[in-house]
Amino acid sequence: MNTASVQRNESQELLQLVSFHIEEEEYGVDILNVQEIIKCVPITKVPNSPEFVEGVINLRGRVIPILDLRYRFGFAKKEKTKDTRIIVVETRNNTVGFIVDAVNEVLRISANITEAPPSMVSGIDSEFIKSVGKLKERMLILIDLNKVLTKSESEKLLVA
Question: pTM to 2 decimals?
Fold first, then answer.
């Protein structure tokens, strides 16, 4: 395979993403990591659980820890609305639910319209950000799910 065809394949790579909102910003995660999206259900608080864990839910017989991405990204807590959703994802060998303000859509974007994030984007630390997608009239912040939880936090979930 020659260099020209490799470059052409890279530029034509499509990313399939689930996009969602927190505050006024639009974020995306790779659809391959998303198991499902559910309406917000009652969350059971767990005594002595890590600070970053909102609680747990029973999802068809499985106990799933729930984290509020607003809190994780440093935004103020907010009352849940009819649009609030839980995105159930696989990250660091854990199944976890992330509370988001609203889920938008499934997008297919070309990898060549993304670029490395600046050091600070939308007030959240760029360590969580994989890249930034430049869409026609908006920006999409792509989240690296493996960095939303540190290794030690992920291990605490296994114990919790």
Answer: 0.83
